[in-house]
Amino acid sequence: MELKSAYEKKLLAFTGQVGDLAHNEIKTVDLNCSLSQAARLLINPTINYLVVLKRNIPVGIVTKEHFSNSKSNNVAFYTDHDYEFVAEIMDTHLISVQKNKPVFDTLIFMLKHNINSLLVMDGKKSIGVISQQDWLSVQVNYPTQLIKKIREAGSIKEIVNLRVESKKVIWEIFVKEENAVSLTNIITVINDSIGKRIQQIALLEMEMQDKGTPPVKYAWIGMGSEGRKAQTIRTDQDNGIIFENVPDNKYDKVKKWFLEYAKIVVNGLHECGFPLCTGNIMATNPDLCNSLDKWKEQFEFIITKSNTKQLLEASIYFDFRCIYGKEELADKLWEFLFKNMKTHHFFMRHFSGNLLEASRPPIRKLAWKFLDFPLINPPPFDIKREGTAPLDAAIRLLALHNEIKETNTLERLQGILEKGNMPKSLADSVHVAFDFILKLRFKLEFTMDTEIKSLDHAVDPKELTQIELRKLKDALKTIYEVQDYAFKEVTGLSIPWSMK
């Protein structure tokens, strides 16, 4: 496919399908093909990829870059050496994507999983190959280059500068893409990359301080918006540490090591523009830096003995996911959580009532003050507390009820839909509402000074158009509907009149 202009190239990045970008001429070689034979093919400037077959089934991809990672940076070096085979250097984790997948979503997928090449399929037929290098051709190399720099950063100071650069990248994507969901996906990849690199630097610093390596395996977990993969450009920290169980006589020493490590990481994140959590939901809090068994004890208390206030505060924990380390520890905690919720049926009923009562969207206030009878100076609308939070709460409740381990709101929604436990029409409305409210939130944050420490989420109704106000009212109606649906699904009862 030949693109006629720079504008068309950028347009493809945000509106096109991956099949439009893929190299449509596939050159295949057998698994037993020698490197010299492969090199002779790749010397041809029109051939960038070789799909490796085993009994006519694709099992790997070889590119010119593979040769530069081997014994020589010169592809021609291999033309006189017949004793090595493509099987020794090819990408064996062959991952495919359908040709109608959006280009931008494919980029996010490759960045998230650090994938160099994808096989593009038309049904069961392979029709092309796409690699990270191909993003250069559509002028969206900036996310790939930025994340590459983050993953290779040698110091916190370097990451601080890259964090500033990331905000410019995010702004450019927001202007072009105008899809808030895709934008949060990119932010998640960027922020996860920053978090992982800071973890690695912190581990090196612990060794340099003669404190050694981690005494046991661990999982650094993100909670709240970080756990939900819903961070915006002005989001504070919510994190913790789960470490492997150890004998009682070693527990204090192990925990001390992780608390010291957590301090380096949390301070590093703070330096990079992630404010400290005012509620102290951070791994430096001794209550949030514990062994798997201790975490289980905390969750059991929440499920069996917590009061209303504790239940509401605990909801942030139910969005946890592993950011770095041993993911199996987080998985085991999820398994424990679901098992205990099944055993204590009253918990979900109690949890749902309290959670929804505390997060009903102010639809009547909006209709009265902003639309039907506009005031000269209408009060601000909190886009987080009165918008995204109520929606997240309803979908979280349904996800827990359906034992869905995903933490992202839309991924949870998809899981609920796949289980047949929500009407598709309602799920579609939720998706539209979620995207619109996120757009408003991004619009607000990009107009504010990002250096302000206070995370203000107040939207001035006077700055919204009548169309935006109408869409906001529709979104809040949808949140009302999904909250009613969630309460009835979980409790078997209609929502109480006091909550209507």
Write the topology of this structure:
Layout: H1 6-15, H2 18-21, E1 28-30, H3 35-42, E2 49-54, E3 57-63, H4 64-68, E4 96-98, H5 103-112, E5 117-122, E6 125-131, H6 141-152, H7 156-177, H8 180-208, E7 218-222, H9 224-227, E8 239-243, H10 248-271, E9 289-291, H11 292-305, H12 308-314, E10 321-325, H13 327-343, H14 345-357, H15 363-372, E11 381-382, H16 384-401, H17 409-418, H18 424-446, E12 458-459, H19 466-491
Parallel strand pairs: 1-2, 4-5, 8-9
Antiparallel strand pairs: 2-3, 5-6, 7-8, 7-10, 11-12
Helix pairs in contact: 5-8, 6-7, 6-8, 7-8, 8-10, 11-13, 14-16, 14-19, 15-19, 16-17, 16-18, 16-19, 17-18, 18-19
Describe this structure in words.
This protein has a 4-stranded mixed sheet with strand order 9-8-7-10, sandwiched between helices. The protein is an alpha/beta fold and 500 residues long. The chain has 3 domains: 18-101 and 109-133, CBS-domain (Roll), CATH 3.10.580.10; 141-332, Beta Polymerase, domain 2; 346-499, Up-down Bundle (Four Helix Bundle (Hemerythrin (Met), subunit A)), CATH 1.20.120. The chain is built from 19 helices and 12 strands. Helix content is 53%, strand content 11%. A hairpin with a 2-residue loop joins β2 and β3 (57-63). The relative contact order is 0.07.
